[in-house]
Specification:
The chain is mostly beta strands. The chain has one domain: OB fold (Dihydrolipoamide Acetyltransferase, E2P) (Beta Barrel). It has 1 helix and 6 strands. Strands 1-3-4-6-5 form a 5-stranded mixed β-barrel. Strand 2 (about 20-25) and strand 3 (about 30-35) form a beta hairpin. The chain is globular and about 50 Å long.
Length: about 110
């Protein structure tokens, strides 16, 4: 099956904490976390909408900031490369090279874009 890759933005809530940081031998770092979007997920009347989960990767200093600041349930927008992949017969969506925008003020009252 061919993979699909397209630029896009996902708006939702941060998933499970904590953010995982992977460090490579070159010294570069990548933050990995999940975000759930329920806006375009449809359910029958009376049923709870299950969300679409995305695994997000944020590279470099922005990834370090995400790891420090991001908590489960934070409303965020993530812009990046949407990549579809298949694993064990199921399709998953990932966001590579993501940029994160916090949609609610942080503990210090500021909004961040990184």
């Amino acid at each position: 099956m061919a993979s699909i890759s397209v630029a896009g933005t996902v708006v939702g809530k941060a998933g499970e904490s904590p953010v995982t940081i992977r460090e490579f031998s070159s010294g570069s770092k990548v933050a990995v976390f999940s975000v759930v979007d329920k806006q375009y997920v449809y359910a029958k009347q009376g049923e709870e909408r299950k969300g679409q989960f995305y695994q997000v990767e944020v590279i470099g200093k922005a990834g370090e900031i995400a790891a420090e600041r991001l908590n489960r349930g934070d409303r965020i927008a993530v812009n990046g490369q949407l990549v579809q992949r298949e694993y064990n017969g199921k399709l998953y969506l990932d966001i590579k090279n993501g940029n994160v925008t916090f949609l609610e003020a942080g503990k210090d009252g500021s909004k961040s874009i990184f």
